[in-house]
Amino acid sequence: MSGKSVTKVWARNRRRNWMSALLASCVLVTAAAPWCSTPARAEADSVIKPNTPTSQRIPDFVSLVKQVKPAVVSITSMIRADAVENDGGGMGGMPFPFPFPFQMMPQPSHQTIEARGSGFLISADGYVVTNNHVVKGATKVTVTLDDGTTLPAKVVGRDGKTDLALLKVTTSEKLPFIELGESDDVQPGEWVIAVGNPYGLGGTVTAGIVSARGRDINEGPYDNFIQVDAPINRGNSGGPLFTQDGKVVGVNTAILSPSGGGSIGIGFAIPSDTVRNVVEQLRKTGHVVRGYLGVNAQVISPVMARALGLPAPATPGAPPIGALVASVSPGSPAEKVGLKSEDVITDFNGQKVSNPHDLAVRVASMAPGKQATIGYLRGGKAQTATVTIGDLKTASSDGNSGSNTDVARGQRLGIALAPLSRDVRQQLGLSADVRGVVVSDVDPGSPADQAGIRPGDVIQAVGSQAVDSPRAAVASVKSALAAKKPVLLRVLRDNQSLFIAISPDGGNNAPSSDDSGDDDDN
Length: 522
What we know:
Blueprint: E1 5-8, E2 11-13, H1 62-68, E3 72-80, H2 81-85, E4 112-121, E5 127-130, H3 132-135, E6 138-144, E7 150-159, E8 164-169, E9 191-196, E10 204-215, E11 225-228, E12 240-242, E13 248-257, E14 267-271, H4 272-285, E15 291-292, E16 295-298, H5 302-308, E17 323-328, H6 333-336, E18 344-348, E19 351-352, H7 356-364, E20 371-378, E21 381-388, E22 390-391, E23 408-409, E24 415-419, H8 422-428, E25 437-442, H9 447-451, E26 458-462, E27 465-466, H10 470-482, E28 487-493, E29 496-502, E30 518-519
Antiparallel strand pairs: 1-13, 2-4, 3-4, 3-6, 4-5, 5-8, 6-7, 7-8, 9-10, 9-12, 10-11, 11-14, 12-13, 13-14, 15-22, 16-17, 16-30, 17-18, 18-19, 18-20, 20-21, 23-24, 24-25, 25-26, 26-27, 26-28, 28-29
Keywords: Hydrolase, Periplasm, Protease, Repeat, Serine protease, Signal, Stress response
GO molecular function, one term: serine-type endopeptidase activity
Domain PDZ: 308-355, 417-495
């Protein structure tokens, strides 16, 4: 996101009453000009005719807010200064609250910073959901109810990978609480409201619509955010996002801002389906376990799709759908049910898999020991398998003297190949059981260069044919070229397997950092 920053929407300050004045901005809404009266010609069957009425009133949220607001809380955390400094960017670009003098390095300190966020009660006995970054490193946490009552809170558990935390407050009274809804039912264009504690102004209500679903903003391995245009600002972190039925469908967690400042109408909420799974585990055990499949998957480029013989997308120009299995971990659940390299996973437990990230999110959300149905393509034919999901935490992460006497030039691809000598294995950190040929050189501007092949890559297979010598690799390349298909290479790079498709006539898609090894095991 060039020129933009994703900001965790919380607030922190040196003293409790830090704001003495608030400037409000007004938005001027003007009527749109009438449509141009010039007639437009179109085929009758291409005209979109919405079924909704042409005039519709904006919803009134008064009754809804009265019902849900008592369950929304403000959270104040006293956080160690060193935890803030080592947060790894989680502060979202916020300025340090007490700048050190010019040319003076910060010294180790036991000082604490007051951080403010939001949360909501999910049970009458005092369980509160919020963001992990609101309470991470906190030495003391307090929760302020809607009626002004302040209660000490205990951190039951935190999950950094989804940025969720569960707190517990204790009181003799039963507390008002709200229920989690079904985020999978939320649709773009639907009205939603956010309630929270922006800039310390507890009980603030804003409204907008769902802008999109399934957003990956590179904040974590399981990003699957709901994007909303309801104004969300610092201090809204951990607050609920409601639909009109009063159910929570998301937890507000981040905003996109060019300057790292306030809301510009692009906010992100963690879906309630994710929240439900994480909170249940935190409540029972204080930590989260995630499902494990044991495949290393990558994005499918159009060239790869042709090389694999996959059916063309229904919509011309649309990206290929599915997650290409680059490798399968030995002894993993995937290996036990027969999944293989070159399989394309298209759905998981009845839900479509558009890319490796989809697969990672769906696998991780399942509890170890449960069964899931996987739909995949092998050689263009649809197949299914039922797999017992493993436990990611306990899964293993198994994730040269001589001369290059047998160097062969890959026909028209622009690569020089050499055998895996003992010296080469030592240089690349490869074990003796790795088979293949090493790319010793790539011609600038060649088809291989355009496709993203690098010197040091180990080509282990051309198509479905394993290769262990440059001569065998060249022969397999010639066969693929004779069939007038892109050449599909299975490559080992940095001990990660991936596929790269090379089209000799150009139009190659070099794998991005997201393409090579988006592993559902992380």
